[in-house]
Amino acid sequence: MLQAVPFPIRVECPPGACVCDRDSLLADPHADTRVLRLTREEEKKLIARIDCIETYDDLRRIGDKMQELLGIGLTITPSARGVRTVRGFTIQLDERPGLCRKTRQAIPAAVRKCLERHPDIAYAILDAHDLLGNP
User: Fold this and answer.
1) Among the listed residues 115, 117, 93, 116, the one whose alpha carbon sits nearest the alpha carbon of residue 43
2) pLDDT, tens digit, for every residue of 98-125?
3) 44: part of which helix (H) or strand (E)?
4) Predicted structure pTM score
């Protein structure tokens, strides 16, 4: 039986179009359903907010808020082989049930565009990691 959640949740993707496993998340009464708060409208707001980021601290705050409010971890790491362009960063969201496939692509793409517009943020990320790649 699917549990009722006290907030609006993301509309289900068409069958076969997504691997978010939303139904099993709703079926587990002990599951963390915070990720379902990210409706399509809220996702658009989040992408717009990422587009407005101008500093590394802003990016870190957005990542912390995503973790706190949605339970989604954002990880940005430079490649071990070096970074010549923004494509040298690995930008990932934690794998979680209920996180739509499109969202897993849209948020990292928005962060990458932000890094392209603000190279100083990319340099701050590189400065935050030591030579071995550890934050």
Assistant:
1) 93
2) 888 889 999 999 999 999 999 999 888 8
3) helix 40-51
4) 0.83
